[in-house]
Amino acid sequence: MKFLPKLILIYLCLSAFCLAKTFAQSSRNSLTPKYSNEYLAIGVGARALAMANTHVAIANDVTAGYWNPAGLLRIKDKYQAALMHAEYFGGIASYDYAGFATPINDDSHLGFSIIRMGIDNIPDTRFLLDNTGRINYENVGSFAEASYAFIFSYAHYSIAKGLTLGGNAKILHRTAGVFANAWGFGFDVAAQYEYKKWQTGLVIRDVTSTFNVWNYNSEAVIDIFSQTNNEIPTNSIELTLPRMIVEVGREVDFSENLGALLTAGFTFTFDGKRNSWLQTDLLSGDFQAGMELNYKKTVFLRGGIGNFQRLDDFNRVQYIQTQPSFGLGFVIKNFTIDYALTNAIRSADNPTTFSHVFSVKAGFDDKKKKK
After folding, report:
1. Where does the secretion signal sit in this chain (predicted)?
2. What is the DSSP letter of 290?
3. Which CATH number does the domain 4-370 belong to among 1.10.220.30, 3.30.300.30, 1.20.1250.20, 2.40.160.40?
4. For 141, which of 18, 208, 236, 305 is 20 to 30 Å away at the CA?
């Protein structure tokens, strides 16, 4: 029985790698574009963002519905909810998250998450020129490009001590004004294992490949696209290939009031060669690490580093660029307020642009009080 948790984790890893070859071959197909549904890889919760997204092994609150649904069972409140808002690219793009979690019984937990990333008020210049060929700014309208995710999470204790299992069912919706929209669905599988002060986590997102169906309103653009010799879009299918994340965490106590949490892990993608520390035709891999210092479990100082990339300078000398992040957290009774300073989304023109991210979490009806 002691080896059961390891066997389950090994089985999940082998399953992903057995499918990897097929995924790698299919990644050359137009149905499986690189960075498909990449907005779901940004992350939720300022605590996790401040720790370079190293949250798969240590997720123990409502945000576990996103990071690792198996972690929902470690929530101490009967009801827990969280909100987050972030802006990227100088406020052009907004990213919002809301989550809720509650137990079904002593052995299982449910969670629900909503994510929206969008760019609003994009100028629609199709009718900038009037019938006489003159510019008429009154004809300029606007539209929004938005991506939504509705995530339903479930977690259950396994028969092995310290091991919890979880899964997600996702419904995705993407819109680009009146021009195009898509619906998709997919699944995630996850596990967490806790032994003394060690914590490990494994998540395979889009485990069966997430299926997206795009519908284009060709009538809205056919005239302009024909005049500019652009290809007229047609309805199509897009597949999001799996992503596997493996992480480990360790708690350290310096004194009765001062402690730390160290985390590190790897993220593997199967949609082709990316600019990461590990680059192969089969998969690409990223490394990330984070740390959290706490005082009486009420004040937190966080930091992390990840997204290692190889770049060339003006002299074509290669160097390594990383993505650092920092943050703070405060617990006030039933509320937790977190802040992160991160450049989770980097602009090619200004890679040093950082974003300020805030999130708040509230828990009610502590389960321990009823025991």
Report:
1. 1-20
2. E
3. 2.40.160.40
4. 236
